[in-house]
Amino acid sequence: MSKVMANVSCVAMRGRALLITGPSGVGKSSLALALMDRGAELIGDDGVTLAQVGELIVATPPPNTEGLIEIRNVGLLEVPTARAPVAIVINLTPEAERLPLGHAAASLLGRDVPQVDLYPDTPYLALRAEAALEMHGLD
Questions:
Q1: Domain limits of the chain?
Q2: What is the phi/psi pair of residue 136, to 5°?
Q3: CATH superfamily assigned to domain 2-136
Q4: Is residue 32 within 8 Å of residue 45, measured between CB atoms?
Q5: Of 37, 50, 38, 64, which is closest to residue 10 (Cα–Cα)?
Q6: How far, in Å, CA of 90 to CA of 78, rounded?
Q7: What are phi and psi of 74, to 5 degrees?
Q8: pLDDT of 71-116, one tens digit each?
Q9: Which SUPFAM superfamilies match (predicted)?
Q10: Which helix or strand (DSSP H or E) is residue 21 part of?
């Protein structure tokens, strides 16, 4: 079973995928770019294909925009892509709790994946996303 998700970005870090969700214009592509600057590889921008492979939900580039990422006010950048099992969902929302106790869960193809809500307007967003992957992401 597979599904193409629109309006999400996704990168791979150390063999694990961070699926970035949130409303349009919140900064999903910007966070993906910042994580790429920290060594992540693009899986998909503004869309990703998810498929169940055994017990894992694997993210792969979407066929229509594979290898392209938007740099707001600049244009589209072409980059190599990766694929990886989804380890965490990073949900960008202004309603994120300042000090949550643990994490939530997002359902992807009927499987629960850890979800961490992050406040989108901070220069340290990539550091927070990477820390969330290490603290709460699936191995």
A1: 2-136
A2: -125, -10
A3: P-loop containing nucleotide triphosphate hydrolases (3.40.50.300)
A4: yes
A5: 50
A6: 23
A7: -120, -55
A8: 989 999 999 999 999 999 999 999 999 988 888 999 999 999 999 9
A9: PEP carboxykinase-like
A10: strand 16-21
Q: Which two tokens stand for residue 29?
A: 């592509």
CB 106 within 8 A of CB 22: no
The Cα 87–Cα 78 span in angstroms is 25
The token duo for 62 is 């979407």
CA distance 95 to 25: 16
Pair 21, 108: CB distance under 8 Å: no
User: What are the pLDDT digits (tens) for 40-80?
Assistant: 999 999 999 999 999 999 999 999 999 999 998 999 999 99
Which helix or strand (DSSP H or E) is residue 121 part of?
Answer: none
Q: Which residues contact 26 (CB under 8 A, 6 or more apart)?
A: 92, 93, 120
